[in-house]
Every structure is written in C-alpha cells, then in structure tokens.
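Methods: example folding runs. The two proteins below were folded one after another, and each record is reproduced exactly as written to the output file, sequence line first and structure-token line second.
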Amino acid sequence: MAFLIRALSAIILFGLINIYAAGRIIKRWPWAEQHAAGAWLFVLAFFILQMIGPFGDHMFFPILKKKYNAARLVSVLNWVSYMAFGIMSLLVVYGLAIDAVSIICQIFISSFNPEVFDRYALYGIAIVTLATTVIGVRYIMMGPQVKEVDIPLRNLPPSFDGFKIAQISDLHIGSTIGRRYTQNVVDIVNDLKPDLVALTGDFVDGSVEDLAHDVEPLSALQASCGVFFITGNHEYYSGAFDWIDEFKRLGARVLLNQHVLISRGGENIILAGVTDYTAVSMVESHASDPVKALAGAPPGLIKILLAHQPASCHTAAEAGFDLQLTGHAHGGQFFPFTFLVRFFQQYYKGLNRHNGMWIYVNRGTGYWGPPMRTGAPCEITLITLRREALGD
C-alpha cells in the first residue's frame, strides 16, 4: 500500500509538471496550437516514456531480464526513459526561467510584445535543451575523471604524510550503470595504487538479486590498508541489510557508526564511518551518530569520518573530526541544477572548511536518473594527506 501511495503521488506530481511544460510549449508553437489534440497525445506518450524506467525497475523489468533474457532491451528502455526524464526536467526549468523573464518584461517594459518574445523563447528553449543534453551525455560517455586533492592536517603523524585515499561515491549501479562501468572504475582506482579506498554510499539502485553481477567487480579493489564502505540513502531504498552483507562478501569493511585504527610506520590515525544521515527514518537502529562512531577511540589522534551526506558535518565537527569525506550532492549533476544545488546544500562539491574541520564533497563517480552531466563531471577522488606546516 505504501508503494502504491508513493507511486500515485509521483505520477500526479510528474504529470502536472509535464502538463505545465507542454502547455507553455504548445502555446508558443503555432503548429502545435493548431493541432492541439495530436500535440497533447504526443505529450501523453512522452510522459508514459518517462515513467517506464522508474516503474519498470520496480515492476516488470526484472521479469523481462530473468524470464525472457531481455537484459539488452531493458537497458535500452531505461536509457530512453531516463533521457526523456532529463529532457523534461530541463524543459521545466528553462520554461520557468523564460516565464519569469516574460513577466518582468511585461511589468517594466511598456513596448514589450509577449507574442514575439514567446516565438523566439521557444527557439531558445529548444537550442539550450538540445545543447545541455548532448554535452551531458558526452560527459557520461567519457567516464569518471580522477580529481587529485591535497589536504593538510595539523598533527598528522609523519608516516602518514603522503597517505593516499581513493574515494568512490554515488556510483548508482542500476538502471543505466552496469558491470562495464563498474569495472572501469575499479581499473582506474587500482591504477592509482591508493593506501586506502573509501566507498561513501549510494552505490546501488536495486536489489542484491538484480545487481550482484554488476557490483561484483568491486571485489577486485586493492589497497594496502583496506577498502571501507558506508551506507547512503539509496542503500536503504534498495534493502540496506542485504547490501551490507553483500559488501562484506565483496571484501569491504562496513562501518556502521564504528571506527578502526589505520596503522602505518608504527603510528595510527582513526577512520570512522556513520550510517546515512536520513537512515533513522527508515531503520531506527541505524541513526547516524558520529559521536558513537568514536566510542572507545584513543585520544589525540587524527580523526577522519566517512559520511554519505554533507549535512553530517555539523555533528562531525562537534565530535572533533579533522576531515569528513562525503558525496550525495553530485555537484548538481547537470545545468541548471549545478547552479540550483547551492540553495539546498551548504557544501555540494570540492574541498570546504567547516568549523575547523575539512569536508571534501565528491561530485559522484556515477550519476542518478538521467544519464547526463554538465558542469559537474563524474569523479574519482585521490586524496593525499599532508602534514600542515606549523606556520599555516
């Protein structure tokens, strides 16, 4: 029943969004306005296409893959559906921007002609949407980039100067990201020869049964000090307990409000990990707790936290962490959301300082939903810890 209510709510919401965007386009396009019935029939078909991917993944796509061995067909349907979803989201945002400009011009410019403006606005929306889509898909096809970042830490033990952490975040294996993409990520990370690999959540969109084959290459990740995994919100959407067991089977150490000591050259630092910031709303016993993650830890050591969402930084800083590695925000993923994300996330990409603690936000090694990236390329982060000079 809960799924049915969520599904119906989503259909109504996205239906209204489609009606708004389509209505504005039809009004601006004389041909569509003259053939309104056919235009709205196309709108309905385009809306159904957007719904095929999200609902197919939960309903009939597993049957197509298992019973009819139609994995390739499912992949194509997902790509087309999520591309349609992405295009519609662009049309809505660009359409709202054009409407806002039109309203302002009508108020302040007496000679403003809305009909002429609408005609040229339609061309503008079409060109910008097409350009955003083409550039976004091109960046996805290029795969993740390696982002190298040096982070200075006061009191870092000398033996940890130059310690390398490879961070993978928000891989989102599922609808349009499969085994080939995962294998490429693993190959890139292993070539970096990191001392430690941090997997900071949102790795899957689907069940272990459906995605085990696509996730399996992660078992080949190599690091002298180990591979560590924390949960993101999407693990809880996809069966967190099953995925926790699966990542353990793949060789990762799962940190659920826990810590470990990382040793090198006879010296130690603390690596802790917390459950997702919103996990408590889905699994009460998994409430994210940076303080609990440090329980029993030796005092006076450098403390690094793996936390999926940037919002964990407030309690992490209070708990005394020196560095938080996080993801979740995707850097906005594609324009114009790369601009809008800053109104919803205090920290959404790159290296930031919060109350004396460093926080690094990975832009996402994969992507969620529409296979598009503009202004925020997919990222594998290679973090090098450095001893902070006394005078800094």
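Second run, written to the same file directly after the first:
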Amino acid sequence: MRRQRLSKSRFMSGLQCHLRLWYETRRPDLRSEPDEVMRAVFETGHEVGRTACLLFPGGHDVSHDHRHIPEALEETRSVIEAGSAPALFEAAFEHRGVLVRADVIERLPGGGWRLIEVKSATRLKDAFVRDAAVQLWVLKSAGLEVRDAAVLTLDRDYVHDGVTLDLDSLFRFHPVFDEAHGYRDTVGAEVRQMQRMLSRRTAPDIAPGDHCFEPYACPYHAHCTRDAVLPDHGIDELPRLDVERREELVAAGIDEIRDVPEDFPLSGLQGIVRQTIREGRATLHGDIAGALADLRPPVRYLDFETFAPAIPRFAGTRPFDAVPFLFSLHTEREGTPPVHVDHLHESDDDPRPELADRLIEAAGRDGSICTYSAYERRVLRELGEALPNRAGELRSIEARLFDLLPVVRDGYYHPEFRGSFSIKSVLPVLAAGSGYDDLAISDGRTAAVRYAAALASANPEERNRTFADLRAYCARDTLALVKLRKALSNLGREPGP
C-alpha cells in the first residue's frame, strides 16, 4: 500500500471527519470557496503570525514554500545544523508521510528546542493542543530534541498605549508540552487509520452532523448536504433550544417543530413558536402598543458599524476590540419625512474622537433613539470609557436608547422568522419589499472587511466607492428601523393576544 502523505492541516481535518480529509486529498474541487470574510480571517492569522515572529529577533524564515518541500526540508536541516539561528519560522519536518511546517521552533539556552504554535485567538482550545501534538510527534520522531511546547495566543488583557506595541504583553504563552505529549501515542494510530482510509478508492460513508462545524466549519458541508431534504420548520428554529433538549428530540426521531409533543418541556417563547407553526399563521402574543408607548419624540434611529483589528492600533484598545468608524442616524418628526445624518471616518487614525463629536451633535438632547439589539448600547458605553471628556454626553445618549428587538421578540412571531429575530429575518416579513439585496454591502462583517481594505488601498477611486457603499449600507440599517417601528405600530393597533 502506497503511504498517503498528510500535512498538519489535513491531519486536523481527519480528526474532525475522515470524509473531509478524503475530499481534501482526492476531491478538493468539491469544496466551497471561502468568501470575502473568511479570506480576511485567514489574512488575520497570517498577520498575527508575522507579528509573533518579531518576538524572536534573528530567527530564520524557511523560504521554500509548499511547492518546494524537499528544498524546505533541506533548508531546515542545514540551518539547524549550522547552529547560529536562535529560532526558525515555518521549519519543515516529515515523518512516516506526515509533513508539518512549525510556526516557530526556538532554540533553548540549555539545549534542545521549544515548539511554538501561533494562533490568532485569545484563549487556548483543545484543537490547538491537538495541533501541537501532531507536530511534536513528527519533530521528535524526525530526530529534533524538543523539550518544550507552547501555544501562543493574543492576550485580551493587553491594552495598547497608542505608541508602541509591547510584544511581550500582546502575546500570551500557554505551556502545552505535557498535554500534547500525552496525545503522542494516539497520533501514530490516528495517522495509520487516516492513511488506510485514504488508500481506498471510495469515500467513507459519514452522515452530516454537528461535527461538520466543530472545531471549524467544513468547506465540504454544502456538497455533503446537497441532496438533503430539510424539514419545513426544523427543531433548530426553536429559539435557544439547549443541547440536551435537542438531543432528546433527535433521539425520539423528531425533526419538525409541529411534531414536538405537548408534554415536551419548552420555554414560553418556544411554545409560542410551536403554536405558530402548527397553526400556520403569525401570533401576536404581547403588548406591542404598550411597549412603544414609552417612545418620546422626536424619534431617532441609530446604527454603528465597527471593525475589530486583531493587533490593536489605537490607544486604549485591546486585541479584537470593536472600534466604531461609521454611524447612521435618522430623525423622525411628526408629519415630515425622516432626516438622515451620518459620519464615516476616512483616514487610518483613531476614528473614535471625531465620530463621538459628530454623534453628539447629530443626536441632539431630546427624543428616544431606536436601535435593534444591545450592540449600540455597548458601543456607546465603550466610547465613553475611551473618551472620558465626552463620557457625560455619551451617557446621556445611551440613556435615551430604545431597543426594538425585545418588542418584536416579546410580542410577535411569524413562521417566516424561522427562529431568528435578526433584523434581516424580521424586516422582510413585517415590511414587505424591504431588504439589502440591491446593495454592494449587505452585512456588518463584510462592511468591516471592506473598510479595513479601503484604508489600506492606495487607489482613491476604490476607496471612495467603498466609502459610498458603506454609507449606503449603514443608512439602510437605520431606514430599516424606521420601517420596522411603523410596522410594529400597525401591529399594536390589532386586537391583543
């Protein structure tokens, strides 16, 4: 039997699902291509990896890439034997058909090496330890004297001073040598199983399930589920259905909400969803008019867009802190069309001071400010913490916020919500013809990615086009709130539950 070569990433895929590994090896053409947001996630990983290398001055970067594996192996061997480099980046090792490229191997003062796996995360996960374990198995089996191993993550407690990155504080070492070494005996057996499976001409028969998304979303899920017949209203549409209850239903062969028994324990909202699906019509189950009665004119509608750099850029920020760069505000006065104001920060310095000033001007001093979810409240609170001289005015704005999400969730359910109370699920149902399909940007994650790309672009036309797209998207969000509030007002005039 010809031994099938594995890489570290393929080994991790095999731990998740043998079918995923089989496709990655034999039918990579079946994978779903990563979207713009996922590509940005990959690039964030590369950025964190490059920054981590600065912790090891004088380290040698193994230059040969995946197209030149024999050369990478030889370069790694010769640099180690030369004995001068304090660390190697992307060092290549192979054992029994398993090839790994180690993020960092660091030469220890007393002899031997430390293996370091770099992750663009802020906490240690078991998958990271397994990742280190397969590398440890290969490196030690290939003859490298590895005496220590660690996973390097970003430290959420690090606060950037706005001047110089303190790399020692930015990163956090998680010692994993003992734990990874404990997996060593199982790695060899798992490698043999994977290689035997890959030697077969036919793919393993594995049904889709929860494993498709743990620890990572599988790029072959769309292919594996292409012929799946989905239930009309599956049990995953039950809001906040915990794992134990879901497993009980699955074990009983129940996948449709309408088939959930009357005596099965559900929360109040879950019971309303079941009733709504069984009756096939919307349910008005709360006092919408009473909730909206707390609104005070002029009614305003606020939305923020934020981006979250993994490597903090601005004073007072931590890794992955959400930094607001754009707001949209519609103001509605009785008998007149809503008036729109926005502000987008177009340079790559800290956007928060100017954005806060423009928001304080635009929000005025009176009237309720409608939002959807608690996100805007959180952004305002963090803005106040970052800008103490504006904190009082920002707290005043926060005190006027009125969240429309609980009004919907606690008052109305429609089968076409399909278990989601996101505004993109609710709005097309309550305000027909409303949506985002005509926009170049239609979700917040894409907005954050495009904004970061625009700041990095040297093309003024591209920057201006992206900035216009961002403004259009954020304005649509607050206009959606205007339409949603009107729709809720109409529902509030209907007979109660």
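Comment on the second run: Residues 6-198 form a domain with the Lambda Exonuclease; Chain A fold (CATH 3.90.320).
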